[in-house]
Write a structure and sequence with these properties.
alpha/beta; Rossmann fold
Amino acid sequence: MSSSPQPQEIQAIFDRIAPKYDQLNNGLSLGLHWIWKQMAVKWSEARPGSICLDLCCGSGDVAQLLARQVGTTGKVYGVDFSRQQLAIAQARAPHLPITWIEGDALHLPFADQHFDALTMSYGLRNVVDISASLKEIRRVLKPGAKAAILDFNRPQNSQLRAFQQGYLDYFVVPTAQRLGLREEYAYISPSLDRFPTGSEQVDLALQAGFEQAVHYAIAVGMMGVLVAQT
């Protein structure tokens, strides 16, 4: 198993891929990532008037979905450690009630019990300490609030797992290579090998202090959403 990259290495990866991030997400998922992200927003139970956090917000697409969900009476914060991603996010949604903050998922600049709902897409797999990140997410959520965390998932079925690996090796990486981003997207597979399974994520969420947690395997098990409630 490969060693885990350092935070500055991960940050550099996301800064480099920022200009092509949305283009690649759309192409590599055949547009399906929008459906998965909408599912995460739905499971977060963000409502009109809610104060929400989109953690590891990237170029801001989920934060925009949250902003439309909470309406003019709500508020959304988008936090990411990639300055380049945040610049793109801010440029894309100047009219929405979203505050963009450069920050660390392990040390959030918010008071305890601040948010009604939280989303995180393709971020938990990239933090250097998943347990600490879940504890920090738990800290900033109000009692009864939910976090919906979307990420890749390793299917239990061996044939689906082989298909997923082939998809990463023979479609994702070559597509990224044509845009000069081969190494950045080759990183997905080893990061997924290190990532806890759905049941392990549930255990980690409960250990972090959440009252309830469930992991939903979606996209025939190749993606997953951890839903944890305080």
